[in-house]
Specification:
Blueprint (H helix, E strand, L loop, with lengths): L6 E5 L3 H13 L3 E5 L2 H10 L4 E4 L8 H11 L5 E5 L4 H9 L4 E4 L4 H16 L7 E4 L2 E4 L4 E4 L2 E4 L2 H12 L7 H8 L10 H13 L5 E4 L3 E4 L3
Helix pairs in contact: 2-3, 6-8
Amino acid sequence: MSAIGMRILVIEDEPRILAFLSRGLQAEGFLVDGAGDGPAGLTRALAGRYDLVVLDLLLPKLGGLEVLRRLQRTRPELPVVIVSARSDLPTKLRGFGLGASDYVAKPFSFDELLARVRAQLRGRRSGGGDGSVLRAGKLTLDLARREARLGELSAELSDREFRLLHHLVCHQDEVVSRERLLSDVWGYHFDPRSNVVDVCVRRLRQKLGSEAPIETVRHGGYRLTTA
């Protein structure tokens, strides 16, 4: 995926980390702006035409979760990747519940963060001109309505079904492990014997019909195909 012309806002109060992220993303071809506190970040995010926001949580003046809450009210289609030293389960769950697209705990690998940023932007760009709709082959995912469409079939999704399908769309044609889905969709690691992912996929397939493009990869996980 080409980064040319894609704009990212980094909201981070630690100057060293802000500079590190800005330089790294710019080196990959992104246009990057920075903000050092919550109010400045929120103002920039609402006023600018950004494709993605990288958001710290421990921000002065206005906390990151409140920034996320206010931002999602106005621009729910805008992907927000949280990067925070707060890696406890309740905070992660709250972040996802408020609309975060992904969550990376500090300390982090820049390569991992870059891969997650690109995955979110790939899903956003596949939606064409309307950032509130993602497309993967014949499947479309309406972010505002939390609705999936496949051909003439339309399906309303539960919160977990939506999050799981959104994750697969953002990683279309990639094999996503059950463990990754448990972590990123449910927000923590279940007992590895749990079948919650399989149950959720089964419900999605029932709602999307016989042409549901979710493929089971033996010993690997699931893949959303676009062919």
